[in-house]
Amino acid sequence: MKNFYNRVSNRNRQSRGPQKSSIPFRLNFLFIIVALLFAALIGQLAYLQVIHGAQFKAVVNQTDTTIETTNVQRGMIYDSNGKVLVGNQAHQAIAYTKGVNVLSTDMYTIANRLGKYLTVSTSSLTPRQSIDYYLTNTKNLAAVEKKIPNIKQYSTTERYNKALSYLENDSSFKLTATQKNAAEIFAKMSGAYALSTTYIKDSNVSSQEIAQIGEHLSEMPGIKVSTSWSRNYPNGTSIKSIIGTVSSEKTGLPSDEINQLLAQGYSRNDSVGQSYLEKEYESVLRGTKAEKQVEVAGNNTITKEVKKYGGQKGDNLQLTINSTFQSQLQKLVRSAESNAGGYSTGTYAVVMNPNTGAVIGIAGVDRNPSTGKLTDNALGTINSDIVMGSVVKGAMVSGALMSGVITPENNTLTDEVINVGGVKKSSWFNHSGSANISVDAPTALEVSSNSYMMQLAMKEAGFKYSAGAALNMSTKAFSIERGYFNQFGLGVKTGIDLPGESTGLEGSSSRTNIGSALDLSFGNYDAYTTMQVAQYMSTVANGGTRIAPHVVQAIRGTTSDGKLGTVKSTVTPKVLNTIDMTAAEKKLVKEGLYDVVHGTNTYKTGAELASISPGISAKTGTAETYYKGHSTVTLSLASYAPSNDPQVVVALAMPNLSTSDEDNNMKLAKQIYSAYWKTVQSTSTLTNPTKATTAGSAQNTAG
Q1: How many Å apart are CA 177 and CA 170, to the nearest integer?
Q2: Is 338 marked active-site?
Q3: Alpha-carbon distance 157 to 180, whole Å?
Q4: Pick from 159, 193, 227: which residue ends a domain?
Q5: Of which family is this protein a member (predicted)?
Q6: How far apart are CA 232 and CA 657, in angstroms?
Q7: Range of weakest confidence among 150-154, 268-272, 461-465, 654-658
Q8: Residue 144 C-alpha from the chain's centroid
Q9: Which stretch of DSSP H or E encloses residue 459?
Q10: Quick check: bond before 646 cis, omega within 30?
Q11: Other Cβ atoms within 10 Å of 193 Cβ, number
Q12: pTM (2 decimals)?
């Protein structure tokens, strides 16, 4: 039996053949798979860390790290002596910083809680904002949806829009006063984006509101008691019209510039300069926001806050304007206008340094002739176009000298009635022709001869005048006269650092209006601004250099105690052009302007100005104008002082006065000069103040 089993066993072994183990092959296969996986892992790690490590790290940082910004105080505006013209008034405020991925329902809850303690104005709440607030409550949304047929067939967005449309057409839909208050808060919160801060109420927050909100801050995530600022004017608002305005938190960024400003780092509810200096120097005044780096975990909770930059208050502007004098100037202008008769529409005055272009005072008042209401408008000096009258004659004589039609040695003409084709034009003192006199260039300015200027215009155009003959003069007369006027600043922009200035207003230059070329020569055709007149007289006063007026003197920082800091940059005089006149030609014009006030001719026009000390040189102007069919006069004046060493220019314009007010310009000029020497500059600083009053025209030798 034993042998039997052995034989069977041997046969079985022989039938199966030799035995080999399968374990090593399987292990090898597994090792190969694991090796490939490790190789893939190492390759992926190399891809992530070595090849694209920096890129993915940046993506991770961008995703998990966000910068939260906080507004800083706007830079202030000071006068030439360091007095605050525009400051910042602090207000207690209630603000909201929106978290990451905050739901509308969360803000709805916070708005309702905050509304219990804080009352806000709902005047700007729109119907859409009211409905959005109402429908954020899921119960309200469900109730409205039940009223809409087949609502379930629509998507979530479509269902909301259907509910929105339903309430917009439901005349019975109305929020209670409490709901409106909460809806306004909700609307402001909804307008913020992640980690941005918006004001819920930026002024007039009561002590009770502060206390109650402070007690419940933990119940209202993102709500905090903060500080806001608004512009104030501690030295009066007379200068406000040229300083401009700043948008409020309520109005936010201007709609027509919003995309551009957002790209520059503004938030939608930031304040920004809207006009004039506030807008022109926005980049200087805005400052740099404080920055806080906020790390956010995967569940959108803030895990870490790191202060990266404390922010910097905006830099300050220091103006060339003297605030004390500016206040006096505005009062004088307003008083002159309030006493004006006829159909007066305003009074405007500019006081500036002729050697630097620095504007020392700029004032204006508009008047409604129908109601007599006065409105401060200093900007009227740069954007109100006025037919100025004879004040331009200094430029006309200068142009004639430059063109060569008269010379310092040969400039005498006869003042006579100019008769062109039966149309007669004359000087104010020689309407009938009975006072025909010989006048040279200085005398023509002294007595304000219209006839002299018309003859110059015809000579410049190459037209030979014959009494009674038609005025077949070329229309190039207009461009010739205007070309010389432009060199002095009349009829072109002055280049002042304020936006919106006018170039003036030109009358028609057509053949049918050729007679107006004669009117242009004595200032009774084209219209100019008061600032242009000031620049023109400054150009004469400083010897022939046209300088751009400016109201900003310097950009300055802030000291540690909040006061005016060091100068960061200054505004240097900007030369626009120089007048190509010889010293003798300039002397001739200056003699005439001096004689307007101090001359001996019976017909001199500025006798009333002779009492001003130090003595001035000037050109008065009277234009025959009309207001709604009524005959009026427009008075102007351009002057500088002292005559022998010009330090200040005064220019003014008073349109549409009664004909009985023909000396109002000189009365106002005397008051302005008196205020200037008392307030801005002492006569003790002058080299020879008495000489300026007593010297004759011969002293005007400066080129």
Answers
A1: 19
A2: no
A3: 25
A4: 193
A5: Belongs to the transpeptidase family.
A6: 36
A7: 268-272
A8: 49
A9: helix 450-460
A10: no
A11: 10
A12: 0.79
| φ and ψ at residue 505, rounded to 5 degrees | -135, 120
As given in the structure block, the two tokens for residue 514 are 């050729």
DSSP letter for each residue of 673-699: HHHHHHHT--GGGSS-TTHHHH--GGG
The amino acid present at 686, given as its one-letter code, is L
Which of these is catalytic: 390, 398, 449, 643? Answer: 390
Residue 356: enclosing H or E segment and its boundaries?
none
Residue 670: count other Cβ atoms within 10 Å of its Cβ: 16
Is residue 519 assigned to a domain? yes
Question: What Rg value do the Cα atoms of the chain yield, rounded?
Answer: 40
CA distance 317 to 332: 26
Token pair, residue 67, equals 């910068």
684-688's contacts with Cβ under 8 Å and 24+ in sequence apart are: 686/614, 686/642, 686/645, 686/647, 687/645, 688/644, 688/645
Q: How far apart, in whole angstroms, are the C-alpha atoms of residue 681 and residue 690?
A: 15
Confidence tier at 501 by pLDDT (50, 70, 90): very high
Look up the CATH number of the domain holding residue 141.
1.10.10.1230
CB-based contact 445:606 (threshold 8 Å): no
pLDDT band at 90 (very low <50, low <70, confident <90, very high): confident
Name the H helices within 177-220.
Answer: 177-190, 207-215
Query: In sequence order, what E strands does 202-249 have?
Result: 223-232
For residue 85, give every residue at least 6 positions away whose Cβ sits within 8 Å of its Cβ, in sequence order, or none: 77, 78, 79, 233, 234, 235, 239, 243, 319, 321, 323
- The partner residues of 68 in beta bridges, in order of sequence, read 292
So what's the pLDDT on residue 686?
82
With residue 342 as reference, give the H or E element that holds it.
none
CB 500 within 8 A of CB 382: yes
Half-sphere exposure of 53 (CA within 13 A, CB side): 6
Q: Are 294 and 68 within 8 A, CB to CB?
A: yes
Q: And the tokens for 488? A: 């002095």
Is residue 549 within 8 Å of 649, Cβ to Cβ? no
**Count helices and strands in the chain by DSSP H and E runs:** 24, 22
Pick left, alpha or beta for residue 214 (phi over 0 → left; psi -120 to 50 → alpha; otherwise beta).
Answer: alpha
d(CA 451, CA 433): 11
Q: How far is CA 91 from CA 71, 112, 222, 604, in A?
A: 14, 24, 19, 59
- In this structure, which amino acid lies at residue 561? D
Token couple for 649? 């220019």
Residue 369 lies in a domain: yes
User: pLDDT of 591-618, one tens digit each?
Assistant: 999 999 999 999 999 999 999 999 999 9
Distances (CA, A) of 521 to 390, 398, 432, 527: 9, 12, 20, 12
- Considering the domain boundaries, does residue 436 fall inside one? yes
- Look-up of token digits 């015809």: 458
Q: Backbone phi, then psi, for 516, in 5-degree steps?
A: -70, -15
pLDDT tier for residue 62 given thresholds of 50, 70 and 90: very low
CA geometry: angle 438, 441, 447, nearest 5 deg = 70
Task: Supply the range of the domain harboring residue 640.
Answer: 324-544+579-682
Burial of 14 per CB tally in 10 Å (0-12, 13-18, 19+): exposed
Write the CA distances from 506 to 72, 178, 488, integer angstroms.
Answer: 47, 60, 16
Pull the structure tokens for residue 448: 């304000």
Domain count, the chain: 2
Q: What is the reported pLDDT for 666?
A: 95
- The rounded Cα 251 to chain-centroid distance in angstroms is 17
Give which of 43, 70, 637, 226 is closest to 392, Cα–Cα: 637
CATH number at residue 415: 3.40.710.10
- 77, part of any domain: no
Calpha distance 476→510 (Å, rounded): 10
Kindly state the tokens that stand for 369: 């002739």
pLDDT recorded at residue 6: 52
